[in-house]
Amino acid sequence: MKNYGLYIAGSWEEAASGQTFDATDPATGQPVARVALGGPQDVDRAVAAATPAAKEWQALPLSERSAALYRMAQIMRRDADELAVLETLDSGGSLYYSGVTIRDVAARRFEYFAGLADKLEGEQIPLRDGYLAYTVREPLGVTAHIIPWNGPMWEASRSVPPALAAGNAVIVKPAQEALLGAIKLGEIAKEAGLPDGLVNVIPGPGSSVGQALVDHPGIHGITFTGSVAVGQDIMRRAAATLKRVVLELGGNAANIVFPDVDMAQTVEGSIWAAFSNAGQICVSGPRLLVHESIAEEFTERFVARAESLSVGPGMENHEMGPLVSEKQLARVLEMIEVGKAEGARLLTGGARLGGALANGYFVPPTVFDRVDNRMRIAQEEVFGPVATIIPFASEDEAIAMANDTPYGLANGLWTSDLGRAHRVASHLQSGQVYVNEWFCGDISCPAGGYKMSGIGREEGRQAVDNYTQLKSVRVKWG
Ligand code: NDP
After folding, report:
1. Is there a catalytic annotation at residue 248?
2. pTM tops 0.70, yes or no
3. pLDDT, tens only, 414-439
4. Rounded CA separation 231/146 (Å)
5. Mean pLDDT of 380-387
6. How many CA atoms, within 13 angstroms, populate the side-chain half-sphere of residue 382?
7. How far is the CA of 432 from the centre of ligand 1 (A)?
8. At residue 128, what are phi and psi to the nearest 5 degrees?
9. Is 268 among the residues known to form the active site?
10. Could you confirm whether 282 is annotated as catalytic?
């Protein structure tokens, strides 16, 4: 079993407490690596390393900053197979999906922001004769990135590249439940020639490492992805030091299926919207709103396809892997019971898998129909492989139901009517809308939440705004 330390100031370090914890394979329940358990003292060490590293980074010519980030992407592509294994080992997703994450998502994001690093331009503001005013984008300093377990490198590679491109040093706190995918980020940065201390990785509990990052006066921005309750707590605590806060919280997307669709393509797309990564994706589409005229046929085909998905360990490349942890398994099974008790009809799945998979945290694709949009099973984020099917009669009703949730992260729709596609998209209250292909898009498209799904936008060139502050310089030259 491999041991991993904290990554501080360009080297692997033991935790100040000397303690470790086990990273666990959710397909077997067995430990797969031992990891140093960071604490508040380690946060102090990381901030002490990051602060001068940020200054060194800011002093580099921007072409060099850009080239160094580009080298990080090249290293990720070179080591993609090894990094994909780490991503899968403790998060449970398929190895194929993890490979795509490293090559097409993480490396691509570093390339995208490498290209932006030397284009953070300000503006000239007209005043009057003899005066000149202009704006300059300056980095915040040190930023902290508190990430969840549903794809550690996927999550870390979202906010770290724009923060670095803007001239900041970063401290990443991965989730204890799954973190191995992100553990090598600091080492990759060092090999790419970034200053020691610019990228630090500190595993450890949210209640100590996470809170210490939020409270630390030497940290100037917090980017958090995870649950609403923790996001709210972070925002309250960050007020004490007036940190910049970006929150990407839960979602409960509606997947609206109109009657004029290609049924085979829509069923297949909706299956992956609901069950990719065992439903543990914030922009999953588990809430299926299906036009009443096609609901019966759609449901039959959707259930048949759900039952055909192969379920098993991510390392064996099954179509669907386990839930990330025993805690998440308990939450998903509890929500399935809630759905049954509320009167929804369980069409398939609904129980933990046994046999050869009994030691892992496996729940098969689960589908409910006869669901009312006001039921908890439809309103709450289950964050597991549980889809609900809700019929609708009119476009207005579909839009109203889609928006009738506290969340507003993503929604999607399937139709062959172009006018309807744009009309419905314009009425959906969410930061992202997918039309005729779930998850389509790229790092170039801003992502974030309306309503309780968060504040701020990650991805897209706007993401660097999270990590810069604007200065206006006013000059009398006449
Ligand atoms: P949390 O919000 O508890 O955890 C997310 C991250 O925040 C982890 O790194 C965690 O550390 C850290 N954290 C926890 N408490 C604090 C704190 N007080 N201060 C600072 N950081 C903290 O998510 P859970 O893992 O408990 O998942 C619960 C639910 O959240 C899920 O069922 C799902 O609904 C939602 N979720 C949404 C995600 C998304 O992508 N939007 C991702 C993950 C979860 P650690 O766990 O190591 O203690």
Report:
1. yes
2. yes
3. 999 999 999 999 999 999 999 999 99
4. 10
5. 98
6. 35
7. 21
8. -145, 175
9. no
10. yes
